[in-house]
Write a structure and sequence with these properties.
Helix 1 (about 35-45) packs across helix 14 (about 375-390), helix 8 packs across helix 12 (about 340-355) and helix 11 (about 305-310) crosses helix 13 (about 355-370). Helix content is about 40%, strand content about 15%. Strand 10, helix 8 and strand 11 form a beta-alpha-beta unit. The chain has 14 helices and 15 strands. It has a seven-stranded parallel β-sheet, with helices on both faces. The chain has a six-stranded parallel β-sheet with strand order 12-11-10-13-14-15, with helices on both faces. Strands 4-5 form a two-stranded antiparallel ribbon.
């Protein structure tokens, strides 16, 4: 049975409390960065005495206060559900909202836009994904039409929003390019997590349970095992590094359509690679605490929660140079980024295995940089934005 949102009369609210709705196709038990951020932001809004509600589809058997799940049609074999309206119970609550915050640009965005317009309420859009780069995973013949669909959909939602945000400047630039006349209504707002869950891990996973020697450097990846994550590139570099003497191990947490091919690819060093599949979210800090380096060769990220979690746990990163990494870099980097070649990546893998003092310094830098993404600060900034929008007049209606 779904838990109702806490009654207003039983909560310590103040006169500035807002009724805020988060609209997302992704929410636990779905596992991805959007789901993680929306969940943590929702919980923190409640902790900061706001009335927060989440509107999503399917998975009626889960218990989350303030979450309204409208049944939906399964989308293939994925955990996502599809519907073109909210059920009556969710609609009633949505009509009482003061702020609409949309986290994905497709069907659920259309629902939020309609209700927000009808009630003349501010609507904010946060785009968490570079959908334009995901298009390259589809057959080349249909890529042009998919790119047009992505651009048209994104433009429509941005124009319908009072404010649009992205968690990285790289993604914000792409969004501004779609609506150059509205570029002043697109800004950067970083993601955030509860850092303390990763900063202090009482019981890390044990290396002995995986047959990993104490002195070996463990590289870990956590996320979807899909083409856009570029894991085949890291696999080639990992094999080359091991052949060159790197004392390295690779743990992969997650699943997806690239897994079978990846298992075949790493067969020459299969005794050094562990495919653990999808793991419960509450075990992720323990896996990170056991590892030494977080490895993500993806070029299609925005501001990934998985990287923030690893850095909060004091893990240096390794990856390929890409615009989205700028959100994690200052004068003292928390890891290594390389050119897009197998040789360069293999050299960096071996360097992180052998230069433990440099790795320790990167670990300290990573932990420090992670403080930028404290959900308490991020949510407080969002509350300020919500309040600011409440005091503004609606922007001119866009086409």
């Amino acid at each position: 049975m779904q838990v109702e949102h806490p009654e207003r009369s039983t909560r310590a609210v103040n006169i500035q409390t807002l009724r805020i709705g988060q609209f997302s196709d992704s929410f636990p038990p779905i596992v991805n960065g959007v789901s993680a951020f929306v969940s943590e932001h929702h919980q923190e809004l409640l902790a900061q005495y706001q009335e927060s509600y989440v509107f999503t589809f399917g998975h009626l058997d889960t218990n989350f206060p303030g979450v309204y799940r409208t049944p939906g049609v399964p989308m293939g074999n994925s955990p996502f559900r599809l519907n073109f309206s909210l059920d009556r119970r969710a609609t009633r609550v949505a009509n009482e909202l003061q702020i609409f915050h949309v986290h994905e640009p497709f069907v659920i965005a259309n629902i939020a836009i309609q209700i927000a317009r009808r009630n003349k309420r501010p609507l904010v859009f946060t785009n968490h994904t570079r959908h334009d780069t995901y298009v390259t995973n589809y057959p080349r013949m249909i890529q042009p039409s998919l790119q047009t669909h992505v651009a048209t959909t994104m433009e429509r939602v941005i124009r319908a929003s009072w404010l649009s945000t992205a968690p990285s400047e790289d993604s914000a630039r792409w969004m501004r390019s779609l609506v150059p006349d509205l570029e002043n209504r697109v800004r950067v707002m970083r993601n955030g997590i509860h850092l303390n869950r990763f900063q202090r891990v009482d019981e890390p996973m044990r290396r002995d349970d995986f047959g990993i020697p104490a002195e070996r450097t463990i590289f870990i990846y956590i996320g979807r095992v899909t083409p856009e994550k570029n894991l085949n590139v890291f696999a080639d570099a990992f094999i080359q590094a091991v052949r060159r003497g790197a004392d390295a191990e690779w743990i992969i947490i997650g699943d997806g359509k690239s897994r079978i091919g990846l298992e075949v690819q790493v067969s020459p060093v299969q005794d050094r690679v562990h495919f653990l599949g999808v793991q419960p979210r509450d075990l992720i800090p323990a896996y990170l605490a056991m590892a030494d380096v977080f490895a993500t060769p993806s070029l299609s990220e925005v501001n990934p929660v998985s990287v923030i979690e690893a850095m909060a746990c004091g893990k240096p990163y390794i990856g390929l140079k890409s615009g989205w990494w700028q959100e994690f870099i200052d004068e003292n980097p928390g890891g290594l980024l390389t050119e897009h070649t197998t040789a360069a990546l293999a050299t960096a893998i071996k360097q992180l295995c052998t230069d433990k003092s440099a790795r320790l310094q990167m670990s300290e830098n990573a932990r420090r940089i992670s403080s930028w993404f404290d959900i308490r600060t991020v949510t407080a900034q969002w509350i300020d934005i919500y309040r600011s929008l409440m005091s503004q007049s609606p922007p001119p209606r866009q086409r």
